[in-house]
Amino acid sequence: MDLGLEGRVALVMGASRGIGRGIAAALAREGARVAIASRSQEKLDEAAAGIGERATPFVADAADNERLADLPAEIEAALGPVEILVLSTGGPPLGGALDHDLDEWERAYRSLVLAPRVLTGAVVPGMRERGWGRIVNVGSSSTREPIPGLNLSNSHRMATVGFLKTLASEVAADGITVNTVATGRFATERLADGTGSLAAAEEAARRDVPAARLGQPEEYGDLVAFLCSERAAYLTGTVIPLDGGLLHAAF
Length: 251
Fold this sequence. Notes:
Blueprint: E1 9-13, H1 18-29, E2 33-38, H2 41-51, E3 55-59, H3 65-78, E4 84-87, H4 102-130, E5 133-138, H5 151-171, E6 176-183, H6 189-195, H7 198-208, H8 217-227, E7 239-242
Parallel strand pairs: 1-2, 1-4, 2-3, 4-5, 5-6, 6-7
């Protein structure tokens, strides 16, 4: 299937490892020119080498909104205007509803809510002028069913989905789609850190996930590549679970 991504310029946040890297690799395989962004130059260089010549690294911290505001213009100067934006960032600290002080709440809000607002604000005007754009948010299944011990993620990711749903309805007629993937359990360092080890996470998945395994970043990348494609032009404003059947809710 030709996804129509040849030559498109994509910005993938959090792309130095895990799900973000899997997405960047999938878009590059489909012919996109991919700006991969993360706060670590060393990890970005490693990721770019693994993805190939279609990947170009840009250092940017999701907590630095001034940097994020300038990033799309820097990418445009190097590769062309950003036509695909993938919003992805590492999760905030674990903890219950009252376990975090207000400074931690503000840091989570800055990276999970304000960063998407800043980046979309920077790229949407150009997408509207060109009559084409794709925005995909790497969310969490916690937006459907809050996860115990992940209060900051539960709270702030819901806010982001509300913002993006509003945006989706406002830009749909301009040829721009906006979708969120409700992420389940994937084989990443983040999951390993939260469960003690990747082996422990895999054992838990065999017990808890109907598919009886963890998802792989490459599988995630395949879904996002489709959401960014010409074939997905009528799909917008959605929250799509990618979780091996883990969610109990029907809708």
